[in-house]
Amino acid sequence: MFSKAQAYTVKSDSVPVLKGASIRGMSVVDDSVAWISGNKGTVARTLDGGKTWEKLAVPGYEKSDFRSIEAFDKNFAYIAGTTDPAVVLITRDGGKTWKGPLWFGIEGKTFFDAICCWDRSHFIIISDPINELFIVPRILDGKPLFPDTNDLKSTPGESCFAASGTCLRIDKRGRAWFVTGGSKSRLFYSRNYGKNWINFDIPVISGKSSQGAFSIAFSDDKNAVVVGGDYTDAKSTAKNCVITSNGGSKWKSPEIPPGGYRSCVEYISGKTFICTGTTGSDVTFDHGKTWKNFDTNNFNVVRKAKKGKLILIAGDKGKVGIVTVQ
Predict the structure, then answer these.
(1) 25: which DSSP letter?
(2) Where are the alpha helices (DSSP H) in the chain?
């Protein structure tokens, strides 16, 4: 566990092979292997902990916006395209070839915000509402299994944000969560692999299409941090972060909030979380009660290794960085 005496810093630069792409998706496998994705059909992989990146071609999807990615090792990864076409693709050979679509949405209507995987053959994806209904199928061996639609009704103007691929989270015990924004901010929760859902209101700013809960991260099944705000008023700290210690039915505001709109929050260890957005990045050592800014650059997503300590961060203009702890 990191202590309060430790300082977080970011070393970042634009990666030439990414050609200025906006990076939104990120999956850090371990201290060596990580994958990123974004607009302009961008998918890239590092095998040396983010020091160098290899851009991977996705033939036929050069104009797609891949805002979410889930990788298992240096060879195996899923990517999800947002819209037109909204697709899920898979590679088993390090991006040399892609198979799919494993799942695709309704043309002109489906917008995939995020994908999460319980294992290599069982994943869940979320789409913005169609006819005021969130579309959240789980896919098992290529076959879609749909939840009870009565559990997933949206309010007019409510949606998810495909800002960092972290509006949706899962755990190994079959639980899943996603957060919403726009006209209303809510947390949807399933304890049975997405078959049934319940929801709770979140006291994050909402009411406009640019406002809401953008990202959630858990330290365990009860303790979580939600960040968001208003991306058109990026410096505002009004209702941009809340914390829960009981799984989401009750929320508290931080004593010192993050420094503005934040599109991604990531659990690190102990009571430590990091969040990032267009006006900077912040760290908390007390489970979200107080936040301290450690970088003022514009980023979209920050993720920690599933197995290891590597923390990577990325944003617009092909910028990717390594978060270090001293």
Answers:
(1) E
(2) none
Residue 27 sits at the vertex; the CA angle it makes with 195 and 220, to the nearest 5 degrees, is: 55
CA–CA gap between residue 287 and residue 310 (Å, rounded)? 20
Cα separation, 326 vs 313, whole angstroms: 17
What would the two tokens of residue 174 be?
Answer: 């079959």
Contact (Cβ atoms closer than 8 angstroms) between residue 10 and residue 282:
no
- Return the H-helix or E-strand segment holding 294: strand 292-295
pLDDT digits (tens, 9 = 90+) for 34-89: 999 999 999 999 999 999 999 999 999 999 999 999 999 999 999 999 987 899 99
What topology does CATH give the domain 8-325?
Methylamine Dehydrogenase; Chain H (2.130.10)
Give the C-alpha distances (Å, rounded to integers) separating 44 from 58, 69, 123, 285: 10, 10, 21, 31
pLDDT in tens, 129-170: 999 999 998 988 878 888 877 899 999 999 999 999 999 999
pLDDT at residue 326, as a whole number: 82
Identity of the residue numbered 17: V
CA distance 184 to 74: 39
**Sign for the pseudo-dihedral over CA of 251, 171, 22, 275:** positive
> In this structure, are residues 262 and 214 in contact, taking their beta carbons and an 8 Å threshold?
yes
> Which amino acid does the sequence have at 28?
V
Supply 269's token pair.
């260890």
- Complete DSSP assignment for 52-69: S-EE---TT-TT--EEEE
Q: What is the CA radius of gyration of the chain?
A: 18
Question: Phi, psi at residue 150, to the nearest 5°?
Answer: -65, -20
